[in-house]
Amino acid sequence: MRCPFCRGNDSRVLDSRTADDGGAIRRRRQCTDCDRRFTTQETALLSVIKRSGASESFRRDKVISGVRKACQGRPVTDDDFAILAQQVEDALRSTGAAEVPAHDVGLAILGPLRQLDEVAYLRFASVYRDFDSVADFEREISSLRAQQPLSRT
User: How many CB atoms are closer than 10 A to CB 90?
Assistant: First the structure.
């Protein structure tokens, strides 16, 4: 790691800690040439490949923005959105891939959204899965009913 003060090419790590909910590592370093200390932050990049083939960095705020539209008028808090976005990012990172197709991001949203709010899930799924008939909604609602615990009325 290059020293920001003397531009020396070597430094040693004094301390490492996780940051940004485990998505990054902060390292306290000391230059072996000038003995000054500095901090670096290392992050694993996660890119989303869009349908057009363009690539962009994964952003939680884009996940929240899309889900917020589906949750409009529903009893969902900002904390719920933040937790859902973190779950989506964790699911995508757990694949170990540095690049994920945009389609996989949508699939990763569906599970946590279904747990959060079933109406919002139906709204999101209808757009994401391109529902074009009442039968599509009926099939999805039947699937929701089949997965509900029997104790609910």
Answer: 14
For residues 66 and 36, give the distance between their C-alpha atoms in angstroms, rounded to a whole number.
45
What ranges in 1-153 are assigned the alpha helix state H? 60-70, 78-93, 102-116, 118-128, 134-147
Where does residue 70 rank: exposed (0-12), middle (13-18), buried (19+ CB within 10 A)? buried
Cα 123 to Cα 126: distance, rounded to the nearest angstrom:
5
Q: How far apart are CA 62 and CA 152, in angstroms?
A: 34
Q: Over pLDDT 70: what percentage of the chain?
A: 95
| pLDDT attached to residue 149 | 62
How do residues 5-45 score in pLDDT, each as one tens digit?
999 999 999 999 988 767 789 999 999 999 999 999 988 88
Burial of 67 from C-beta contacts in 10 A (0-12 / 13-18 / 19+): buried
| Residue with token string 């699939």 | 107
